[in-house]
Design a protein that fits this description.
Chain lengths: ~110, ~120
């Protein structure tokens, strides 16, 4: 039973470029959340997708956008990259909405913006 | 405002001993969930244990238990019989259940080192 998978594992971009990160949820899960974790910090919620719609959004600018596909996989897009976007990007999957709603995470994508 | 506080940046424990990692939280929502995750150097967040605000008993999962003191708004993680593989960052997180909220709010984490 595959867990949450993310690609790529590492990425190096320059300022102003655009990046797309990908996530496949755990088998049986229908909801995907994205978090940004800067070095030495806890994760910060970016947004959550369910039924191909953004259901909740954290305090991130419009440069951050996402998409969820019919097979529940998801993409995170970041436009006009800034140095401050360098971080570990974590994807989490869960079942919507009820019960304990445990979020299970992938190993993340480490993005470096030069 | 919702907030998670972890006051121990780093902790050391001898192998086979127990260790307590502190977590306090702040929320005005009467319904919430508390979570602990482990993050090894590889980066993956590994779910350890969950406690609901209305749960009467403290949660336990194998060697992990959660010391939930609702009046004091604390949710400390207790790891019994520490193992070398327990060395990692540990994060406490909270989700308010009201208003269809779905996001987790996280603390800054505690780095645990298990000494042989």
């Amino acid at each position: 039973d595959a867990g949450v998978t993310q690609s790529p594992t590492h990425l190096i971009k320059t300022r102003g470029q655009q990046v797309t990160l990908r996530c496949s949820p755990k088998s049986g899960h229908d909801t995907v959340s994205w978090y940004q974790q800067a070095l030495g910090q806890g994760p910060q919620f970016i947004f959550q997708y369910y039924e191909e719609e953004e259901r909740q959004r954290g305090n991130f600018p419009d440069r951050f956008s996402g998409h969820q596909f019919p097979n529940y996989s998801s993409e995170l897009n970041v436009n006009a990259l800034l140095l401050g976007d360098s971080a570990l990007y974590l994807c989490a999957s869960s079942l919507y909405p009820g019960g304990k709603n445990i979020q299970y995470f992938g190993a993340g994508t480490r993005l470096s913006v030069l | 405002a919702q907030k998670i506080t972890q006051t121990q940046p780093g902790m050391f424990v001898q192998e086979k001993e127990a260790v307590t990692l502190d977590c306090t939280y702040d929320t005005s929502d009467p319904s919430y969930g508390l979570f602990w995750y482990k993050q090894p150097s590889s980066g993956e967040m590994i779910f350890l244990i969950y406690q609901g605000s209305y749960d009467q008993q403290n949660a336990t999962e194998g060697r992990y238990s959660l010391n939930f003191q609702k009046a004091r708004k604390s949710a400390n993680l207790v790891i019994s019989a520490s193992q070398l593989g327990d060395s990692a960052m540990y994060f406490c997180a909270m989700r308010e259940e009201g208003g269809n909220n779905r996001k987790l709010i996280w603390g800054l984490g505690t780095s645990l080192a298990v000494n042989p």
